[in-house]
Automatic annotation (TrEMBL):
Limits of the Nudix hydrolase domain: 2-128
Family of the protein in this entry: Belongs to the Nudix hydrolase family.
InterPro entries in the cross-refs: Nudix_hydrolase, NUDIX_hydrolase-like_dom_sf, NUDIX_hydrolase_CS, NUDIX_hydrolase_dom
Source species: Raineyella antarctica
Keyword Acetylation tagged: no
GO MF assignments: hydrolase activity; transferase activity
Keywords recorded for this protein, A-Z: Hydrolase, Transferase
Entry protein name: Acetyl-CoA carboxylase carboxyl transferase subunit beta
Cofactor field: Mg(2+)
Gene3D superfamilies from the UniProt entry: Nucleoside Triphosphate Pyrophosphohydrolase (3.90.79.10)
Length: 133
């Protein structure tokens, strides 16, 4: 199985909302998830999380801490090795970009109205994020 290093970023705002992006590419195109993607050669997971946040949302973030490390099989013999980080917005303007079709702030109550990536809520719970809402 080929392992693909990746990073994600979980961003909460003062209104107790989480920033989600609608995936513009496979896997799980059209579903909502936290910003993230593959590491570039020589890039650390935390730097990748900062870069992916900006590329997919237009927001500059500061990493607070790593909150989750998991492996996600893709079903085609690959596996993403994902490091997820909690981050705070420090600048920029929200706008979908790169491989995101849309980006928006979502309250915990509104998560059920969106088609989320597989197991996203479980992962957020495992990371302790739902306790911060």
């Amino acid at each position: 199985m080929q392992t693909i290093p990746a990073a994600g970023v979980i961003i909460l705002n003062e209104q107790r909302q989480i920033l989600l992006v609608q995936r513009g590419h496979e896997p799980q195109r059209g579903r909502w998830t936290v910003p993230g993607g593959r590491l570039e050669p020589g890039e650390s997971p935390d730097r990748a999380a900062v870069r992916e946040a900006f590329e997919e949302t237009g927001l500059h973030v500061r990493i607070e801490r790593e909150v989750l490390h998991l492996r996600l099989p893709t079903g085609d013999g690959h596996e993403f090795d994902v490091h997820d980080f909690l981050a705070t917005v420090v600048g920029g303007e929200l706008a979908a970009g790169d491989d995101a079709d849309d980006a928006r702030w979502v309250s915990q109550d509104d998560l059920g109205a969106l088609e989320l990536t597989e197991n996203l809520v479980d992962y957020l719970e495992e990371a302790g994020i739902t306790d911060l809402w």
